[in-house]
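Notes from the 1:1 (GR / supervisor)

We went over the backlog. Supervisor wanted to see one worked example end to end before approving the batch request, so GR pasted a single chain during the call. The sequence is below; no edits were made to it. Supervisor asked that the structure be written out right there so they could see what the output format looks like.
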Amino acid sequence: MLPDRERHALREIEAELLASDPAFAATLSGHKLRKSGRLNLLLVLCDVTAVVMLLVGLFARDAALVLWGTVSAGALVAWHIARTETARKSTEDDATPAADSH
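Structure output shown during the call:
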């Protein structure tokens, strides 16, 4: 356990870091990483489910499973594209903050 003086100094450093670079502070705290990991897991599980629906529907000759597997695969492709575009834009925004000020 840290003494009160050192805890206060640490809180001041954290506040200054949060004010100067919120993205870096969030990365250090790990909140952003954990949330991103859960989202990636959900996306992978959805991908696997869509593929299983398609394969089972094809082998069982069940038109409903093939239809819903195709619809969900299309929606997942759109989700992947949207995530990629969002990540690309946020990376560009983080890399070139001076371009926005002109």
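Supervisor's comment: The mean pLDDT is 81.
Batch request approved.
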